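Per-record layout

source: Rhizobium calliandrae
name: 5-oxoprolinase subunit A
length: 253
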Amino acid sequence: MACIDLNSDLGESFGPWPMGDDVSMLSIVTSANIACGFHAGDPAGILSVLREAEKRGVSVGAHVGYRDLVGFGRRNMEPTSAELIGDVIYQIGALQGLAKAAGSTVRYVKPHGALYNTIAHDARQAADVIEGIKSIDPSFILMALAGAPLVEQARAAGLTVVCEAFADRAYNADGSLVSRRLPGSVIHDPQAIAERMLRMVVEGRVTAIDGTEIMLEVQSICVHGDTPAAVSIARTLRESLVKGGVELKPFTP
């Protein structure tokens, strides 16, 4: 039987400003990437999501990003190595403290937004993130974009890597994500998303935006939690995978 993990970016609400329906998403996904306060999230809200994840048996990871609350971590930045290593360590440590209070444990790291996209191909910043992770705990799993150079770089450095696909994002022929600035970069039809992800899990392939068939190594699928139809998309995807004979379970031990 094929198996897959479903993950979502959660804990991103800030004070009185809500971002997504975390409780509903936690009833659907098997892993939760929890904001660490740099791109989004406040301590009280993060703690609440961690408690809910623990209650539901959802695996928890640190969603580390650039220090960019105003830009939601989606603006490209060039921190020095010392700054980026320190920021990664700081964010993981903060989430570990909150997780301990919630009776939970941080088991993996998934970079967020611009940092995620940058380190997929930028060897210097990737090395900084890897060093930050290993400084905290070399047994942490790194979640990375399937097919990106980062995957082999991190594995060569001794980290276990889980490769990720994005349920609602279009792919280029080289396996990279189509820029959000371009039309067709985000897919909104829940059924279309479910069908393409079921095929990806079962056959290991997906149709790129130009019609090219590409192969991807994938152990986890990200369903974004901050879009208007996020819960509907995630629920339709989960139901389709289960109906297709796919087992849903966290990639963490």
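summary: DSSP finds eight helices and ten strands in the chain. The first helix runs from residue 22 to 26.
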